[in-house]
Amino acid sequence: MAFPGSVTTCLSQPVHYVICKLGFEKKDTYDINNILSGNGEVRWQAVAEHVSYLGSDQSVDYIKSIRSLGPVCESVNLYFKSLTKEQFEIQYASWFHWTNCTEVFLGVFDVLQCTEATEVALGLMKLTSCLERALGDVYLLKSSDCPFLLRDLLASEQLADVFGQAVMDVLRVFIGSPHGLNLRNVLWHGFASPQEIPAKYCAMLLFLTAGLGQLLQTYLLQTEGVLAHRPYVIFVSLEELDAFPGKYLTTNLDNEMLAIAEELVKLSSFVLKTMLPFWIAALTAFKQGRYADCVILLLPQLEAGLRLLFTTTNKCPNRLLTAESSALYTTFDEMLAKHLDNGEVNQLPVVLEEPAMASDFLWDFLNHQEGPRVRDRLSHGEIKLETFPKEIANQLVGFAITILCRFSDEDMNSFKEHVGIKPLLHCASCYRSRFHPTALLSKQVLECMKSIQLWPELPTVPEDQVEKVKGLEGNAEANTLILMVSETISQLQHYLPQNCCSSDDPVNSVLTERLLVALCATRLCTLYCPRAVLEVVLLLRRIAAQCRRVSRQVSAGAALRYAQWLGRSLRSRQRHSYPRMLNSMKFLSPVLRLILLLITLELVSVHSVCKKNPFDYQQYLKFLKSVLQYTENLVTYTSPEKNKWDETMELTKKTLIKIREIIDRKLMLMHLAT
Origin, by domain of life (predicted)? Predict the structure, then answer.
């Protein structure tokens, strides 16, 4: 691995020139009054005059525009430095209300008064994320589907209609275009060091944001419109993110642990020395309880460190630098992929001692669609920064410590054996994905099983008090279906753990939560999961979801009918359907539990076969789709509006016959027989 101290910048030469030099070439002193009216409003026309266009297609000439805007930005920066906090708030606070993040923008003014480059970079990252969110809210005044990428948002006709095309061209010089300064991306993706971001660009964006507020106020008055703000994302079920339990984080990362982390940062080969201030600032922010700031600073540095590993192990050192406008950045998505863009195998997982842990953790926290997607939501302004949860910061700092330990050039045994560090490394080695589709399927299965196991606790009318219904011959039909379930379990004996099946009661000895928990605990490799597996898992998740709906409907229906029976409010039709419901519950419970068992066995087995030799599974998928159709029909038949219990019984019998035939023909679980 290349020594990180030899890397002096992660900006390519052209990008470094554009950000660090181009805007300083003109030495003119610009009069702030040219772009600022007497009452503090931005003179947009005067600002827009500094944007140049190419003659061929009238697209923005970013080089000339940045060069011309350089003195303007410096003038704005000096102007802000001349104001007190009180003066700034009186003059500008109301113009930031449209962002729904007024305090964030006032905080950016504070950092501009200091000389700490790291704080300026952090302020700019927060500013761009909040500005993007606010611009998205404005976009929704004109359309119903906001673009995900800032680049597309700024280039939209909708925002040009509100603010004017010239105004949007000014913004695109600073953010949103790979041809311009592109300040948001070079910071959020960990390319720029603190010293490489001129404070005057942060000041200019703060100034322009206030100017946008002024334009928007005029637009809303003219159109009688109202700007609505989308609700922030709120993280729920934080315990599911507990990769490093609190007891292993020494009471949530105490000062001793953070002091060790600071030493690791200085010694680890994972850290680019030019980025060291970002790491120290992240840990300082954590100590001070600024958890959003900690994570905003930390995530780009994790990306930068992994990029260093990626480019070194794959022998493509040029990819460490920012790409030009004609190419793609090397970002998390590519670094976590199985193959490089040239088709060769990505060597990064080989270098990581626990590749599944590092990749699974990052995929869980950053990429999986049903995970927290922390980086996306922070960088796009979807999270309220003031209430960012400490729990997530805990996990990311804990993960960072394990990565720093793993990639250290010095003899780090003393650190690795520390009473606080050693358990973290153990947790890292045992980490399993929580938000990969297979992990979510396991969770669905277990939740559904818990729901079904509550059925016996539901209050029901004693059988001898239930009105006899013509055509309902005792328990014969239900017993027949239960017997079919028992016979199916016998077919599956070869695939089940030894001694889990009792010959006296195969249904209740096998179809248990304990068995499903044991099967779901099977460690599956979710990294680089083949498409064939994901297609099967998707179907299995849909089946499990329908089973859960059936369980909820049956539980709710049984409780309602019992209450109506007690209150003597059952209508004639309900008095006839209630006994059928009770009878159906006797066989639906084992049938649904059998389906959950089959789902779990398939989850384990389909990973194995597709990892070794992907099989022709079209007929197998057809079978799964038929099971899905059965569960969807069950949802309909067991709904309070339908109550089709006789049809449920007949449909269940046909489905059980089909399942047994499939198992006999070894189209299901065939790969486990080898």
Answer: Eukaryota
